[in-house]
Every structure is written in C-alpha cells, then in structure tokens.
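worker-03 picked up job from queue 'complexes'. Input manifest follows; two sequence lines, order preserved.
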Amino acid sequence: EAQVTQNPRYLITVTGKKLTVTCSQNMNHEYMSWYRQDPGLGLRQIYYSMNVEVTDKGDVPEGYKVSRKEKRNFPLILESPSPNQTSLYFCASSFPGQPQHFGDGTRLSIL
Amino acid sequence: SQQGEEDPQALSIQEGENATMNCSYKTSINNLQWYRQNSGRGLVHLILIRSNEREKHSGRLRVTLDTSKKSSSLLITASRAADTASYFCATQGEGNKLVFGAGTILRVKS
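worker-03 finished. Artifact:
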C-alpha cells in the first residue's frame, strides 16, 4: 500500500531535549516536505527536499533541521525544542508537480 | 507566507444541500489543489486544477478557477454527513512548493 509513515504519532517531551520525528515513504517520490499545522494558520512549510542530499528552507525553518540521506526517508530534527514548537506536524511526498501524499501526523507537545 | 485564503472559515449545512467554499490567492500559479482533512488526520488530495483550466469535476466535486480574479471555488453537491471535515486550498507555483490557506471547516448535519 502506498503510504507516508510518520513516527511517533504522539510525543510529550520537555524543553531542550533533542528529538527526531521520522518520515518514510514507499512511493519512490523525489519530493518530500515537512509542515506544521497550528489553529487558524493552516499548514506552513518547515523544510523540503527535491531529492537525495538536496534540502531547503520553507517558511518557518527556525529551530528545525532535516536530512535526506536516502530517497525514502526525511527525518525532522528538533535539536533544542521549545514550547512554541508545540504543534501538529505532517510529512508529505510527491513526484514533482503532482499532488502530495500526507502522513497521519505527529502531535508534539513540548513542556 | 499564506497564499490561499478560504471563505467562509466555517460552514454548517444540512445533509443533501450543496456546500461551496471559496479560495483567493495573490501570486501567479501553475496549479491549485484542494485537500480534505478529517479531524486530527493527514490531508487527502481531492482535485488539482491547472492554471489553463477553468473547471474540473470529480464525482460530487466541482472546482472552478478564475486566474484573472485569482480565485477558486469548491462545490460539493448533495452533501453527506461523511463530508464533515476541513477543506484546504493550496497553490503551487514553480519548484513544487505548496502554499496552503487556513481552511474551511464544513459540518454536515444529518
């Protein structure tokens, strides 16, 4: 089954404790992206990747890192999480110019 | 940066009625896409309309695009309770980037 898988689905953690949210897709998509969703703001892009070893900043990249060492994986790293990063996070993937496939989301709470 | 702005923010209708949601955007686009999100879940792609198209249909969905007014509308005909969800428009320009609006919350009462 074609899918984008994110882990974990839920995480409660504390300020400053490094965390990684994993994202994996099985559709051989070149393009992958991370979004955060906050009430009233829709989805905002954090980082994206056009292909392996090619990543770039989206609209709200501060406090986040990503890597794209393999085509299928695109982890999101929070080196020193802060409460303003509490949000619902989505990973998505697609072929260029095509609709994006989304994971089920990761709800992150940082205390 | 938020490009698409949906209107209304929330819509409540009876089952069987039609639901219309509007989206306006600011810059030139390659295509405009509509997505649906059930509560707390990931977004699901509904329909894509290219900048050189004016109207597109998919089942009970009808999307229009007016590039001169930089606006689009999504019509859901004969709505069902299962259509209750949030609906987002997203514009795509060069480089594959999608820019989402804040969404319309649709509630269909049975």
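worker-03 released lock.
The radius of gyration of chain B is 13 Å.
The first strand of chain B starts at residue 5 and ends at 7.
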